[in-house]
Specification:
With 180 residues, the chain is an alpha+beta fold. 38% of the residues lie in helices and 21% in strands. The chain contains 7 helices and 8 strands, in the order βαββααββββαααβα. The radius of gyration is 16 Å and the shape is globular. The chain starts with a strand and ends in an 8-residue tail after the last helix.
């Protein structure tokens, strides 16, 4: 079995939970790939898993940028899968990204990682400046936007066991805003 990390949002997590699967295919996921292992050769397995999850959390900001009505909290769904497709040769050194060509059954979900409510301001700023962070200021993006995106990495993701996910979603409401 291999652990993969699927970037998500509260509304997408809610939809997957109710559908009983994460999809549709193809899905972008993150894992300890050979490219990540080679880039971070001094890292142990736990450090490599954290690096893969961090890349998924960054991708979650992109999903938030595409859905302005979603709560400004990164979501990463950790899954245990049996087979992962090999890289297609276009992967850069350090890249944990891979493409899953199948839907992932909800039974493969191991846990969910979600920002604390207090992180919404930092994550929201990063989502609002996502396009600028990936713009073309010498191919590095707008410095302030890149700083906003990097600032998310200072926020810890909270861990939720699979049995806690329905309660998390019930507390969040349909668009991911905490209910009063």
């Amino acid at each position: 079995m291999m652990r993969i990390y699927v970037p998500s949002t509260i509304p997408l997590l809610d939809a997957a939970c109710h559908a009983g699967e994460i999809g549709p295919a193809p899905l972008t996921a993150y894992a300890v790939t050979p490219a990540l292992r080679e880039w971070y050769s001094g890292g142990d397995d736990e450090e490599l898993e954290y690096a893969a999850m961090a890349q998924a959390a960054r991708a979650s900001v992109g999903l938030l940028a595409a859905d302005p009505s979603a709560a400004r909290r990164r979501v990463v769904i950790a899954c245990e899968v049996g087979a992962v497709p090999p890289a297609d040769g276009t992967v850069e050194l350090g890249d944990a990204r891979l493409e899953m060509r199948v839907v992932i059954p909800w039974t493969k979900v191991a846990a969910v990682h979600v920002d604390a409510v207090a992180a919404a301001g930092v994550v929201g700023k990063a989502a609002d400046t996502w396009d600028a962070a990936h713009g073309d200021t010498a191919n590095g993006g707008d410095e302030d936007a890149v700083f906003a995106l990097d600032s998310c990495e200072g926020e810890d993701l909270l861990w939720y066991a699979t049995q806690e996910i329905p309660d998390l979603l019930a507390a969040e409401g349909p668009r991911g805003g905490l209910r009063a």
